[in-house]
């Protein structure tokens, strides 16, 4: 059994026991959060109807706060001496899928 869930601005394929990184959510380690299912596959049964998906719960446990990879931004203009360097690391949350209740 697996589900396609909305996690931040992306869609992720999850099953019970998976650990994944999603956009930062409010919550500390040990908290439980609900993810919105978009599609549920249980053997040969595929559920994508909105009224049936309203009854499905995908539960995840917050493992820890994390950061994405370092991204370096460099701006440069020729012959003017203008040079600007900047870095960014996206804040993320690591979660573990604990249950998919269909």
From TrEMBL:
<dbReference type="GO" id="GO:0005840">
    <property type="term" value="C:ribosome"/>
</dbReference>
<keyword id="KW-0689">Ribosomal protein</keyword>
<dbReference type="GO" id="GO:1990904">
    <property type="term" value="C:ribonucleoprotein complex"/>
</dbReference>
<dbReference type="GO" id="GO:0005737">
    <property type="term" value="C:cytoplasm"/>
</dbReference>
<dbReference type="InterPro" id="IPR018258">
    <property type="entry name" value="Ribosomal_bL21_CS"/>
</dbReference>
<comment type="similarity">
    <text>Belongs to the bacterial ribosomal protein bL21 family.</text>
</comment>
<dbReference type="InterPro" id="IPR001787">
    <property type="entry name" value="Ribosomal_bL21"/>
</dbReference>
<dbReference type="GO" id="GO:0006412">
    <property type="term" value="P:translation"/>
</dbReference>
<dbReference type="GO" id="GO:0003735">
    <property type="term" value="F:structural constituent of ribosome"/>
</dbReference>
<dbReference type="InterPro" id="IPR036164">
    <property type="entry name" value="bL21-like_sf"/>
</dbReference>
<keyword id="KW-0694">RNA-binding</keyword>
<dbReference type="InterPro" id="IPR028909">
    <property type="entry name" value="bL21-like"/>
</dbReference>
<dbReference type="GO" id="GO:0019843">
    <property type="term" value="F:rRNA binding"/>
</dbReference>
<keyword id="KW-0687">Ribonucleoprotein</keyword>
<comment type="function">
    <text>This protein binds to 23S rRNA in the presence of protein L20.</text>
</comment>
<dbReference type="Pfam" id="PF00829">
    <property type="entry name" value="Ribosomal_L21p"/>
</dbReference>
<comment type="subunit">
    <text>Part of the 50S ribosomal subunit. Contacts protein L20.</text>
</comment>
<protein>
    <recommendedName>
        <fullName>Large ribosomal subunit protein bL21</fullName>
    </recommendedName>
</protein>
<keyword id="KW-0699">rRNA-binding</keyword>
